[in-house]
Amino acid sequence: MNRSIDPITTEIIRNAFISIAQDMNAVLIRSAYTPVIYEGKDCVVALLDEKGNVLGQSSGLPLFLGNLEICVKETANIHGWDYFKKGDIFFVNDSYFTGTHLNDITIFAPIFHENTLVGFSASRAHWLDVGAKDPGGSMDSTNIYQEGFRWPPTRLYENGSPRTEIIEFLKINGRFGYSLEGDMNAQIAAGKTGEKRFIDTIKRFGIENVKLARDEIFRQTEELERQSVMQLKDGEYFAEGYLDNDGVGLDPVLIKMKVVVKGESIHIDLDGSSPQTNGPVNCGFAQTISACRVAFKLLINPKRPVDGGTFKTFTVEAPEGSIFKAQTPAACQWYFSSLGLVIDAFVKALSPVIKDASAAAHYGDSMVIFIGGVDPRNNVPFLSVEPTCGGWGGFNQFDGADGLINNVNGGFKDIPVEVFEGKYPVTIHNYGFRTDSGGAGKYRGGCGLYREYTVNADGFCSLWFERSVTTAWGLFGGKDGVGPNVKIEYPDGRIENKLKANGQVITKGTVITTFTGGGGGFENPFERDVNRVLLDYQNNYVSIEGAANDYGVVIENSTVNMEKTQALRNSRNS
Amino acid sequence: MSNSYRVSADIGGTFTDIVIEDLNKKELKNVKVLSTPENPANAVVEGLKKTININEIDFIVHGTTVGLNAFLERKGSKVLLLMTKGVSDSFIISRGDRKELYNVQYKKQKLLISRSDVVNIEERLNWSGEILKELNYQDLDLAIEKIEAENIPAIAICFIHSYVNPIHEIEAKKYLQSKLKNEVEISLSHELAREWREHERASTAIMNSYIGPVINKYLRSLKSQLGEGGYSKQLYIMQSNGGIIRAETAIEQPVKTLLSGPVGGTIGGVALSNAISRKNLVCVDMGGTSFDMSLIIDGKPSITNETELEHLPLLIPLVDIHTIGAGGGSLTWLENNAIRVGPQSAGANPGPACYGKGGEYPTVTDANLFLGRLGKDSKLGGWMQLDVDASEKALTRISKEISMNNIDLAEGIISIINAKMADAIRTITVKKGIDPRDFSLVSFGGAGSMHAVAIAEELEMNEVIVPNNPGTFSAWGMLQTDIRKDLSVNFFNAFSSVSLDDLKKQFELLKAEAIQLLEIENVEKRDMSFFFNADMRYIGQEYYVNISIGENDSMETINKNFHETYLKQYGHSTPSGPLEFINIRLIAEGFIPKGNIAAQKQTANELVKSDQRNVVFKGESHTCPVYERTTLPVKKEIHGPCIIEEETSTTVIPPSYFFFLDDFNNLFIQRKK
User: Fold this and answer.
1) Rounded-to-integer distance, Cα B517 and Cα B485, Å
2) pLDDT value at position A2?
3) In angstroms, what separates the C-alpha of A252 from chain B's closest C-alpha?
């Protein structure tokens, strides 16, 4: 054990790092301009040390876990650590660099104490529009040049002053330049908050002590992690699944995973996964690593904050030119759809050795609907961008959650019917749980949702719904959840069912109903407590038919007929 | 000459604190009795009876955790929610967000009702309040059948867009009342919050109905027991918004008194702020398991218009109190040989090791006791003697694992918890865009004053104030406040489309309504005052900033005030950015004559120590005098290190600090020059 810094000071500094990140996050979320950030929490902040290692991180979006440091380290790889000067603020959004889509803007700034580089503040947030061919982003892009402006690490500020020509360039190349600047300022303000508090911490404890404490904190984290991984049984574990398609073609896209547990280390190999696709489901390797880190974090010490000691014995590999390690000019707009599946796959692969900590798969993707046009109430253009909630997988002793946001999203909240109708020329007459959509199980999967939009304007809609081919799988005898659907009813009576659409023209009076999938069930549904089935029936999560067919429970006159139930369960189990 | 008293009672989980202002003798009396959770009114009446004649009381106000406890223990009423057919699941969906990011076994927050307790009622308004579908009375009949068959005592009604046009909610209530055989509590969402967001509004209405019958029963019992004792005047209750209200009004909207207990301290802080001319205060209350913080900025409490309790949203104005899990009972534990303190707490049972009830690991209280900061006769945890040996044993259990000595460990435990509390204060000030260095720290409640100076030092605050009788400070605060009503109306409009006349018209409407409400509270016109404000934001944002609007403000001034407030809070602003209104609000106050009774000036001339003991600061043992607070001389600078003891509180003055007592018995602690 390191004796050169006492455990008390170490613990105080550790708490300070966490608190600094929280303060940065509070500033970013409260001053951002666009709902994707302040409601969707599509953002992350981190305080990094002078070599880019995480001191403290606070994330709105789980998927950005452990990604900011990669951006800083990569920049240093290219230009060297001397490249960072006092008063610099950088931004970068190149997909192959950051791993994510161009809308995600990473902003970071070096922090200097007495002219020495001591760390970095960093943040990432989703900007509403970065000049793609379609407003907000495209569902059908086939190369990155259609997806918006693309920047390598570039100074936004130099010597403490804004480079106004660059900022103007960004503003005029986004459709919502006004909010773009607001969100940019929110990120800069978050960085300044982190800088100030970090400097205060250094002044109080001295830079040497802060560094010693950091080393000790990293050591603690790493050791804890090694101990946890050691407890997993060595071996090779597998899982795979398909995306419905790449958004452009019709073929399912294969995701294949091998997990190797050996002693203190875990390795994920994505070999065998689909080559990069024509459509926009590709991502840069940095983001693949992040998604795998989320999966790892779900199972290994989930409550321990992430720092530079996390993920030391965790490695990820993906084939060059695959959807997980895409190269120019692969389209990356929907980079996260495959990553949600990667996370579920990791849990499934390891479930045989960690049954109690595992869970069946969830509904799988953000299931996004865009509705846009001109609001007839004030003749102003509008665009709503909305992810939708679905069911999560059952797990030991508990049912999966009904109507919950997907795993790559974070603190997202649905838009209330009243707010939606106030802001947009749309009426939502129906919004609720899809009965029988959760996969049956001793612990059932959560129910998906339906949401019906009556659009009171001419305009367009875009859709990105996924996971109808590989719906949420059950585990240990639990059944799969029901998949998604979107129904469009046009005023002329035409009805279309589809899951993906880009800029689909709709006329006033069109009714769009989205249906999200349910989660997978956990263990044999015929072993489910009959009273829980009855309760589900009373709450209308399960229908009378579903109770009989999926659970072998016969409900008559609002009570369980035990005799018939026994008979049914016996006949089906044999 | 007969006596005349103003009385307040703060009914907590363990103690009921009573403060009595004797208007003739110009004296303050403090009474502390054990609470009687089976019927909280008993403790109040008992405490009063043993001190004064109840029929000589002129005014009674009280704060209570009865409603809060009913909620926390989930012992409220069964509630049925009536909601617009088609979208009623939006309540159960609860907006679909996850509060934890890395949990594959996530469980949603536990609501107060289940899906089968939601009854669909056909009706519909659009966003502007126009009726799209008339109210369906057959659906109401079905609800009535269910209510009577299941004997449901409480109902909440939340219809879509009722904040714009409440007609259907009102009609539904009338119809139910005319048809229902038994008396049933009915809460209408628009009466509690005229703001959009159906999940939040429904949640507020459900909470109102959930705790309604409990509060109702309690208030009736208190009123009748006081009546038997000869008190026939108004019974007032503290609201979460920091003002008071008649019990009769509270019975209709009990959710507004949900946090009536905890806010007393902050309101005491407001009164203190006026009395001692300190505009900016951070009020802290450290108890056994939690650390509560609130801000007073420019002499006013920080009020927020919504909150969440156990992740259930409530759209009620309330004093902004932040809580973290740090208290005297916070436990020390080891994780891979690294030290952690809290947030787990030993609670009251077994409590800290020194309580001798089986606590094995050292708590913050054990560390304080071991270092001599806390005396073993302290009544922090009740009336038992504290066991220093047990604390030492508990400390050794940890210290031997990491080869540290007990003194360093005990000081370390305190440093860690102090840093956590300081970080928490910093976070709330960062969110508000203010600098703690411009504030004084006010510490009341049991354990806080042992830590206050160290916390203030971390935050570079200049001064710590321990008010007169910190143990009953919350109760005292309740006597210093006025009647308050908060009114609001949704006003979703672009700033540029609103004229000053439009705004004034809205304010006049709210004011007319407020006057009626205050008249119900028996407030004379001359005692009424009104404060307008609006929730505003840049177009496109979700979070808003609340801007005060003066009677003579022009639209330009309002615009300017917005950008300035925004800049202050967030560190940047866009002066050319277009704005919008969301809600317009009115705070209506009804003046209550105060007793204006200051604490009696202490008369001692000489400083006399009651005891002395060894106290450790920064590894060094100091022989510290211990002073009884009631024997301190006034306005005399007394240097640390020393300890000041009073009935339920101990104040630690470290070596580099001094203190003095002002004329009103408030203790001021500052750094030596």
Assistant:
1) 8
2) 44
3) 26
The answer to whether residue B78 is domain-embedded is yes
Q: Would you call A421 an interface residue with chain B, using a CB distance cutoff of 8 Å? A: yes
Structural domain contains residue B187: yes
Instruction: Please tell me what DSSP assigns to residue B497.
Output: G
Q: What pLDDT is attached to residue B673?
A: 83
Output the six-digit token pair for A422: 């106030």
Tell me the shortest Cα–Cα distance from B374 to chain A, in angstroms: 21
CB within 8 Å of B367: residues ≥ 6 apart: B332, B391, B395, B409, B410, B411, B413, B414
pLDDT of residue B432 exceeding 80, the answer is: no
Task: Look up residue A187 and give its amino acid.
Answer: Q
The pLDDT, as a whole number, for residue A491 is: 97
Q: pTM here?
A: 0.92
User: Using CB atoms and an 8 Å cut-off, which of residues 250-309 of chain A contact chain B?
Assistant: 294, 297-299, 302-303
Of B124, B336, B424, the CB nearest to A224: B336
Domain boundary, last residue among B542, B566, B590: B590
What's the pLDDT tens digit per position in B38-66? 888 899 999 999 999 999 999 999 998 88
Query: Does the beta-carbon distance from B89 to A433 stay under 8 Å?
Result: yes
Report the domain count for chain B.
2
Chain A residue closest to B118 (CA)?
A539
pLDDT above 60 (res B556) = yes
CA-nearest of A518, A553, A562 to A534 is: A553
Q: Which residues pair with A90 in a beta bridge?
A: A108, A155
Question: Which positions of chain A have pLDDT values less than 70?
Answer: 1-3, 35, 39-40, 573-574
Q: Give the closest-approach CA distance of B222 to chain A in angstroms.
A: 39
Q: Do A7 and B337 touch (CB under 8 A)?
A: yes
What's the CATH number where B93 sits? 3.40.1360
For residue B520, being part of any structural domain is answered with yes
Domain membership flag for residue B673: no
Here the CATH number for the domain that contains residue B586 is 3.30.1490
What per-residue confidence (pLDDT) applies to A182? 86
Q: Which amino acid, one-letter code, is at B413?
A: I
pLDDT (0 to 100) of residue A476: 98
Beta bridge partners of A371: A384, A461
Facing residues of B314 across strands?
B307
Chains A–B, number of C-beta pairs less than 8 Å apart: 217
Residue in A224, A407, A429 nearest the CB of B86: A429
From B571, B590, B609, give the residue that closes a domain.
B590
Q: Is the pLDDT of residue B381 over 60?
A: no
Q: Per-residue confidence at B433, pLDDT binned at 50, 70, 90?
A: confident
Other Cβ atoms within 10 Å of B636 Cβ, number: 14
Domain range for residue B524? Answer: 483-590
The answer for A 194-223 residues in CB contact with B (under 8 A) is: 197, 216, 220, 223
User: Residue B438 — very low, low, confident or very high, per pLDDT cuts 50/70/90?
Assistant: very high
| Partners of A236 in the β-ladder | A260
Over residues A395-424, the pLDDT tens digits come to: 999 999 999 999 988 778 899 999 999 989
**According to the 3-state scheme, what is the secondary structure of A374-432?**
EECCCCEEEEEEEECCECCCCECCECCCCCECCCCCCCCCCCCHHHHHHHCCEEEEEEE
CB B104 to CB A23 under 8 A?
no
Give me the residue spans of the domains in chain A. Answer: 7-223, 359-524, 529-574
Mean pLDDT is highest, among B322-326, B355-359, B446-450, B555-559, for B555-559
* Residue contact B87–A223, C-beta within 8 A: no
Give the residue from A461, A479, A563 showing the smallest Cα distance to A524: A479
In whole angstroms, what is the distance from residue B332 CA to residue B322 CA? 23
Q: In chain A, which among 500-539 make CB contacts under 8 A with chain B?
A: 538-539
